[in-house]
């Protein structure tokens, strides 16, 4: 079970600044997770950590700065670098984003041993190509091994489009090999459709096997929707088969102007981070990739964030969800009270400062309906982080 986060900033600082405990043969892997805004980076990070410490919202730019999560398993430590969505200066100006929103993903790449590129396959507007910002980032650091992670596959009714997506996003090359994929179809009167949820199957660390150049994974997820209602053909048993041919082995800086995909991914994973589907498979793979090296953090550390930062992020997540689009991005949070109650509970009072009177009216009108719900949901999330009772009160005021 992952450790809780300390409720005291002093205790959290002591863990962060203290000398990490080290097993006999420590291993470590630093992982940068990059992708377009709202691809599910923080959701995946939380699932890997086993506890929610990063904010998650349907609105873009929920994550405002890089933060580290720590997974400690036996002699291995994974450092997860959760980053803001890669965006360009024009969009950053539109959303009034800090300069750090542009630089943090690049800074995380400098410290990474492995990069996960997350793509939201449910977004039919963006899923067929990697964003130029992602491609620039990969091209700038071609020496860092990269893995493609297709997220939200549970939202696809027609899972067979994943084949086309894989080809486009990898330019048909994975781990230096050209891939040919095909499906084997069988007629069946059943209406169920099975489709692949992953291309690579990672072995547990204790059962490491030589890397195979022939990847074949039988389908694991059922979908009640048919591929074509006008056809009697059903994929009752389909195998994703990849045939390897010699391709380029090394990647260097590239001109990304006309590129849609990245031909240097080492592996591909397909998962549904929100529900935790296939996240354990990815986690086992990451543990396998760890190299001998001293741990960065004490085994009792779950995140580099302070308790107050976690609290701010979780409250922000809630009002991003419930308040009108133009309001939340201008809100400033001020913690008025943070102390331990007589029964050991954590007492928190926070002011939400809005910049304009018009926002104040809108904010209060909506907060009248949602204030209790926001406080209740945020308090529940904080209890799961700190593993103690939390009493949270929110107040809305005009920013002076």
Automatic annotation (TrEMBL):
Compositional bias of kind Basic and acidic residues: 8-20, 208-221, 246-255
Compartments reported by the entry: Mitochondrion inner membrane; Mitochondrion matrix
Region (G5): 271-273
Region (G1) location: 35-42
One GO cellular component, as annotated: mitochondrial matrix
GO BP terms: ribosomal small subunit assembly
Keyword Cytoplasm attributed: no
Domain of life from the UniProt record: Eukaryota
Compositionally biased tracts (Polar residues): 194-204, 222-241
Family listed: Belongs to the TRAFAC class TrmE-Era-EngA-EngB-Septin-like GTPase superfamily. Era GTPase family.
Described purpose of this protein according to its UniProt entry: Probable GTPase that plays a role in the mitochondrial ribosomal small subunit assembly. Specifically binds the 12S mitochondrial rRNA (12S mt-rRNA) to a 33 nucleotide section delineating the 3' terminal stem-loop region. May act as a chaperone that protects the 12S mt-rRNA on the 28S mitoribosomal subunit during ribosomal small subunit assembly.
Protein name as annotated: GTPase Era, mitochondrial
């Amino acid at each position: 079970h992952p450790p809780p986060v300390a409720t005291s900033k002093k205790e959290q600082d002591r863990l962060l600044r203290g000398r990490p405990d080290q097993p006999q043969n420590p291993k470590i892997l630093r992982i940068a997770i990059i992708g377009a805004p709202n691809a599910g980076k923080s959701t995946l990070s939380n699932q890997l950590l086993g506890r929610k410490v990063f904010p998650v919202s349907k609105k873009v730019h929920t994550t405002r700065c890089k933060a580290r999560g720590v997974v400690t398993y036996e002699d291995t430590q994974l450092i997860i670098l959760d980053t803001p969505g890669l965006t360009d200066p024009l969009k950053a100006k539109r959303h009034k984003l800090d300069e750090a929103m542009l630089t943090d993903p690049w800074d995380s790449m400098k410290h990474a041993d492995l990069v996960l590129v997350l793509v939201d396959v449910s977004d039919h507007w963006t899923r067929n190509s990697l964003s130029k910002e992602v491609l620039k980032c990969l091209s700038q650091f071609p020496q860092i091994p990269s893995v493609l992670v297709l997220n939200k596959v549970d939202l696809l009714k027609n899972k067979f489009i994943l084949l086309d997506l894989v080809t486009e996003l990898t330019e048909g090359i994975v781990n230096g090999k050209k891939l040919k994929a095909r499906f084997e179809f069988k007629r069946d009167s059943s209406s169920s459709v099975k489709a692949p949820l992953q291309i690579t199957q990672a072995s547990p660390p204790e059962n490491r096997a030589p890397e195979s150049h022939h990847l074949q994974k039988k389908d694991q997820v059922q979908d009640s929707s048919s591929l074509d209602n006008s056809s009697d053909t059903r994929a009752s048993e389909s195998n994703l088969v990849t045939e390897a041919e010699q391709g380029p082995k090394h990647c260097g800086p590239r001109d990304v102007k006309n590129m849609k995909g990245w031909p240097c991914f080492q592996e591909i994973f397909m998962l549904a981070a929100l529900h935790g589907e296939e996240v354990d498979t990815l986690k086992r793979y990451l543990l396998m990739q760890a190299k001998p090296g001293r741990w960065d953090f004490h085994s009792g550390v779950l995140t580099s964030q302070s308790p107050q930062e976690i609290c701010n992020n979780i409250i922000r997540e809630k009002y991003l969800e419930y308040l009108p689009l133009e309001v939340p991005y201008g809100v400033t949070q001020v913690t008025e009270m943070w102390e331990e109650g007589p029964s050991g509970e954590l007492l928190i009072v926070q002011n939400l400062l809005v910049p304009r009177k018009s926002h104040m009216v809108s904010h209060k009108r909506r907060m009248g309906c949602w204030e209790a719900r926001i406080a209740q949901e945020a308090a529940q999330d904080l209890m799961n982080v700190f593993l103690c009772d939390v009493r949270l009160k929110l107040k809305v005021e005009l920013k002076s």
